[in-house]
């Protein structure tokens, strides 16, 4: 079985990215390792009193993101593609590359924005960082309007 790491951000193009990854996984008998990386500072806010931490905000956000991950996982499984998911907090690029290595990934599947001819905008800064630093092949799927 071929291991595929699929980072998702729950943006408006996530569904297209998941569809492309499922199609790819079916073609190569792949297993998808779905990952979402939440920022470390979800519960922090700045106001009159300076920085404040609200753990309930972070807990609610993480809980909602886990619900979204579960839904995506169920959609993938419904296509007869094996899938696991995980949510981690930290710096997205570092966490994704570490997760790919931990899962012995054969591929990382990312999406491009398709909005402009400029590389950073076209591919996206996270996708650019992953493709630049990954020792694992990165499949970049065009995600268009």
From TrEMBL:
It comes from the Bacteria. The keyword Cytoplasm applies. SUPFAM superfamilies: Adenine nucleotide alpha hydrolases-like (SSF52402). The keyword S-adenosyl-L-methionine does not apply. GO terms for cellular component: cytoplasm. Keywords: Cytoplasm. It is found in: Cytoplasm. Transmembrane segments: none annotated. Residues 3-142 form the UspA domain. InterPro entries: Rossmann-like_a/b/a_fold, Universal_stress_UspA, UspA. CDD domains: USP-like (cd00293). Belongs to the universal stress protein A family. This is Universal stress protein. It comes from Chryseobacterium cheonjiense. The lineage of its organism: Bacteria, Pseudomonadati, Bacteroidota, Flavobacteriia, Flavobacteriales.
């Amino acid at each position: 079985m071929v291991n595929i790491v699929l980072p998702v951000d729950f943006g408006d193009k996530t569904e297209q990215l998941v569809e492309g990854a499922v199609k790819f996984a079916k073609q190569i008998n792949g297993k998808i390792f779905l990952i979402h990386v939440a920022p470390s500072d979800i519960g922090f806010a700045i106001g009159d009193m300076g920085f404040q931490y609200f753990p309930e905000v972070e807990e609610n956000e993480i809980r909602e993101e886990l619900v979204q991950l579960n839904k995506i996982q169920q959609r993938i499984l419904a296509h007869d593609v094996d899938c696991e998911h995980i949510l981690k907090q930290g710096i997205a690029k570092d966490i994704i590359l570490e997760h790919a290595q931990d899962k012995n990934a054969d591929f990382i599947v990312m999406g491009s924005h398709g909005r402009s001819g400029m590389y950073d905008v076209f591919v996206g800064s996270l996708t650019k960082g992953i493709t630049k630093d990954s020792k694992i092949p990165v499949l970049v799927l065009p995600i268009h309007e």
